[in-house]
Amino acid sequence: MQQLQTPHSKLHTSEFFGRRKGRPLRKRKENLLQEMLPEKLIVLEKIASLLENKRVWLEIGFGNGEHLAELAAKNPEVLFIGCEPFINGIAGLLALIEKNNLNNIYIFNEDARLLLRALPDNSIEKCFILFADPWPKARHAKRRFICKSTLELLHRVMLDKGVLQTASDHPVLIEWIKEQFSLSPFFEEVYSGYTEPKDWCETKYQRKALAAGRACFYMNHLNLHHHNYCGDKNAESCKNCQTSVQKKPTD
Predict the structure, then answer these.
(1) Of 111, 121, 133, 251, which one is the catalytic site residue?
(2) Is the CB of residue 64 less than 8 Å from the CB of residue 89?
(3) Confidence of residue 1 (pLDDT cuts 50, 70, 90)
(4) Above 60 in pLDDT, residue 23?
(5) Residue 217 near residue 192 (C-beta atoms within 8 A)
(6) How many angstroms separate the CA atoms of 88 and 97, rounded?
(7) 133 is a catalytic site residue
(8) In terms of pLDDT, which residue wins out, 184 or 29?
């Protein structure tokens, strides 16, 4: 198979450390990458017009696409964006799109941070970051996707009271995610626990984790545009915190 060329093939960044390709693909999936993917790819320069007047849900790291495809089938009125640089995962999602005749999914196949920087303000209603790579070694902590900088990006692009859903089966990452949200002034926890939250769609990785005896931890957070840390407390909203943000003083 020839190397896939996309509008963002030259935009790889040092922020992404995962795999981009796995085992050789079957001929049918190779054809889907060549024939269907170009129609589904997000072009950053045109993203504002694509999302205009639409409800938009975002999944970052969609794996084989099973979770994203199920959400899209259950919510045909919503436009979905899936971020995944792993070619085999993209091919899996394309096969599900074809099988289920889904026309409300678009794909971004590069580092999700590139997409987050290009998205319009207040454009994402719901975001899913499920079973991300835990990078469990301390020296690799900087590679974990959920961190101060990405939460700031998500805060800007998500709607006020937009839901950010996360999940993991790895104890190191679970504690890391808890800490990152506890340090962020932009999100409020509304659920956390080992029981699936309401309206949960099962993922392939979740099934594998549970079958192996690993407990899965789920978290839902609300994005808050008008919060206690904003320098513009009297405004109707904080204008996505473009003002300088300082931590709330402790008593």
Answers:
(1) 133
(2) yes
(3) very low
(4) yes
(5) yes
(6) 14
(7) yes
(8) 184
